[in-house]
Predict the structure of Tol-Pal system protein TolB.
Amino acid sequence: MKKSLARTYVAFTALVGFVLTAAAPAQAALQVDITDSSQSAIPIAIAPFGSDGGQLPVDVAQVASDDLESTGLFDVFERQNMVAKPTRADQVNYENWRTSSVDNLVVGSAAPNGQGGYRITFDLLDVYQGRSIASFQINAGRNELRDAAHTVANLIYEKFVGEKGYFLSRIGYITMAKENGGLRYRLIVSDYDGNNPATVYSSRDPIMSPSWSPDGTKIAYVAFDINRGRSSLRVQDLATGNIREISSREGINGAPTWSPDGRRLAMTLSYRGNPDIYSYDLGTNQLTQLTNNGAIDTEANWSPDGNHIAFTSDRGGKPQVYRMRSDGSQVERLTFEGQSNQRASYSPDGEQIAMVQKSGNGFRIAVMDTQTNNIRIVSEGPLDDGPDFAPNGQAIIYARQGRNNELATVSTDGQTRSRLSQGGEVREPAWGPLGY
């Protein structure tokens, strides 16, 4: 039994390019570092927010600034260089700010709301016109100030970019660390920026392929039990911790992904002898085989309208991205560039597919236009893996392998990049829904 699991595990991981190496303990929050910004980044300054009830336990303005800067779309003015730190619009000397080349300024304050929390008010100011262009008010509980700061950033982001911000979203990822003479794998859920990490599941054996339910309440993943010679595909409720086992059949139980309505899971099973893609109805427990081919078919990903599934297959000799109807019909090959393409991930609007492309001497994240099939490379490589779109479709999270294995984000045009690093190995990122 153990030998059978080892063979199927190697076959599966060889296709998806999943590599884990020993690392230092990895339990701290991820740290966001901006590596490249857009040349047309929007200049903005967010002055420290005032407080009528004493010092705030969270620096709302700094968190919001970090959010905006992490996208690479905003050129955030450093606090130490501010000519003043107003907290209301009527305190602003616009001429002084113009001399600092600040186009946009945010000023705000927080006060007790009479319900044990805070009422946050802030203005978005056009420095050159010398006026407020938007005013906002947010109510937050005492322990919700960080979420309130993310909301501030979301409102500013939407005002300038025209899309909803993703700063209240969460990510899931796998860490691996040396612990007590062995390895410890953890499935961790955190805020999108790596703060507030919480371990969802921990094991001495590998964990793979986290996938968020559309409503953000559950995560599907694969857990291995090497001693029993089995893998188990599971769904875990994040609020209760309850685990529902979906499949622990002989061979591969892998690569789960949710349908847009949250009613079905697509997955890869090999209990009939060959790795094929199946659809599992969570309400009726009905399992439906979608592919039946002598090749390895895996890494299914639903289109946002639920009508299609993109997947990886080596039926043409090497891993490439294919697409089929959600009932398994009308299979067509999508990718022809590069030596191989795999791990397809649809954008939320269905207009793009991110994937891992092997070309030259490395693996890089590529983005395909679903209308034209044109592909552009957006990451630097040489060992990038596991792309997943932000819930607003404006960025992609992925794993970078190298001297320091870490997560990274890149805009869909490849112009802006940041990395989420910590002192250990971080793999298999999955980006959850918007969060509001």
